[in-house]
Amino acid sequence: MRPLLAARLSRALVACYPPRWKQRYREEILDVLDQHQASPRTVLSLASGAVTAHLDPSYRMEKPVIRIRSDVVRGILMIIGGTAAVFVVLVGLFILTNLRGFINDMSWHPGYAEGDTALELTPDQRLLATEAGGEPNSAVITLWSVGRGGLRQLSSFEGGVTVAIAPDDRMVATSAFGGQAALWSVTQPRHPALLAVLTAGSSNALWGEAFSPDSKLLAAAYGGGVALWDVARPAQPRLLTVLDAHVGPVTHADIAFSPDGHLLALASGNGQATIWNVAHAAPVATITGRDGYFQALAFSPRGGLLAGVTTGGTVLVYRLDGRDRPAVTAIRSGLAAQALYPGGRRAPAGLAASCPGCMTPSYALGFAPGGRALTVVLDKIFPNNSSRDTAFTWQVTASGSLTGGSSAARDTWDGQPALAPDGRTIVDGSAFGRTAVGLWELPAAVG
Amino acid sequence: VHGKFDDLGRFADPSVLILTSLSDGPKHGYAIMTDVAAFSGVGMEPGTLYGALSRLEKRGWIRPLDTDERRRPYQITAAGQSVLAEQLKTMRQVVRVAARRTATA
After folding, report:
1. For residue A58, which residues of chain B lie inside 8 Å, CB to CB?
2. What is the mean pLDDT of each run of 10 residues along chain A (447 residues)?
3. CB within 8 Å of B61: residues ≥ 6 apart
4. Least buried of A253, A271, A437, A446, by fewest C-beta within 10 Å?
5. What is the ipTM of this complex?
6. Assessment of whether the complete model's pTM goes beyond 0.95
7. Is A49's CB within 8 Å of B58's CB?
């Protein structure tokens, strides 16, 4: 149970004490609760205290509604009433903690098939698209609504191996290894409709797509660069250009648009990421990582910084100041090793610091909406396929350096994490054997 | 007013801790919790604390001091002191017997 929830429940339970008890102790106990870190034990102690106080004759109402003269009958009624009260409190606690769990905690939902999972949330975080599937051309795309009731499956359809959802909630793009991308209308998310099939004129595999912030452009990464389509009229998409200058072999994809949509960054397998001016279709800068290649990239909300995280667990922040080779303003490395011991926990028995047999972690990163914090999520998968998400958050200064640093960790299922646009909600999908998707939220202090 | 400690049943333990805490001067609820945690390692929860406080107050073993603030200090009474002394005597006896028996075991 989260401390905030426990604190709220505790205060609600104080209201359940008998009126005469509250008259005497209410202010005092609320004062104690103001200073005390509430926990499930606090909630239970107050629930049991409230029941006991109700059973105490000295706190009973002065003028009872029904006057019961027999002590035996009164005793029986008190026992029945007390048991019922405890039962109601326990059921209430169970419902409240579980309802809350659907929103802020992980809620796992069975998916469809085994295989890699890609996930993306819309900016309003109300629609989630996930991909799961092992077969190259028959992976299943699932649309979910995200709300107070948790994740609700809206529809699913055979799409491709990657998925991107347009910021305006109206389109989903998928791609298959055949080099084709497909555009789907999801204006009626329960009934997705195929709008168009996009071909980049290449038989290369498409590795991933991204919509521009205004949802008018679709970028798709293929083996040699990025194909850019105008999808302002979704039923008639138009290939605008192919950006392939200065690009190494593209073996995976992370494409990021700057918030104003003017710049586009693509990571390639040679460890570099290329940044283009979208309107001029011209490369403007190249950044080089260390420790492997960039697995995820993100522009800061004002567009002045570009952050990337590499497969080796190094976070780099670059200041985009018009130069070909933007200056590095911050480096944090060794995240994968730190992620083994979240919260200072000891390593699982028999697991060395290097984590033999662990899979290469999956990463996601993003800036907080105001741009003052950067969060990297790392999903470390242990040899037994158990997995742990660790989120590292730093404060970002105006000059682009990182200060402070905190982390939060959560055991999850093996999978691919994604960071929602709020910079705090983490979506994680399972990749092996138990396909599922879930949400968890970073504490306010971290996010 | 002066009753047997055994009457408190399962509240005996928090009550001893609270009376011990108040033995060196009046304290309010949260101060009792932190003091008890410091000298005994017992993390008392607010529901348990106020359950015990209300019983101790009703038996006249502690009394609330007048204050205008939200946090009201409690003071141990003479009756409370004598009950605590009695209880500690029993506990010392238990400790003595336990020490002897575990030493010979």
Report:
1. 58
2. 77 89 90 87 90 83 61 84 87 62 36 47 78 61 74 77 83 75 88 85 67 91 82 89 70 80 87 89 88 88 91 90 87 77 49 59 86 87 69 90 83 71 77 58 60
3. B15, B19, B76, B77, B79, B80, B83
4. A446
5. 0.83
6. no
7. no
